[in-house]
């Protein structure tokens, strides 16, 4: 890890804590792990990659989009159902295949989730099936019987 990468990690952890919740930054980017930071042509951090896969992409809006491994780490760092949308057996194979999550099939959802938030999509048994962007608030996901709840970006079987 180069000096500029070690300089960036505290700032990236702070951004992750702000976006996902306290303690998530340390879970996403642990001190004792060798992480690769890919940079844009201007030198801004663009992606953080671990041996297990892409953790996050750092957007120009200052927010992270989760990779599947990043979703696993966020789900492990937060108490259920925070930061995740839980689905049952009925929609598990579709979500695992990369299809979007519809409100009708949401079993539980973190109460803090707002439209546009990055979430992990988790099976009711606890395995992370996919990651994506919430299209509805937590209340709307619980109340609606129609409509897309989460736009899936990366799924476990893709």
- Which strand order spans the largest sheet, edge to edge or round the barrel? 6-10-9-8-5-7
Query: Mind summarizing the main beta sheet?
Result: 6 strands, mixed
**Based on helices, strands and strand pairing, what is the structural class?**
alpha+beta
Query: On the 0-100 scale, what is the average pLDDT?
Result: 92
The Rg value, from CA coordinates, equals: 15 Å
Query: Quick one: overall form?
Result: globular
Number of helices: 5
List low-pLDDT spans: none
Give a count of the beta strands, DSSP E runs of length 2 or more.
10
SS strand fraction: 25-35%
- Determine the fraction of residues in helical runs and give it as a percent range: 25-40%
- Roughly how many Å apart are the termini? 30 Å
Order of helices and strands: HHEEEEHEHEEEEHE
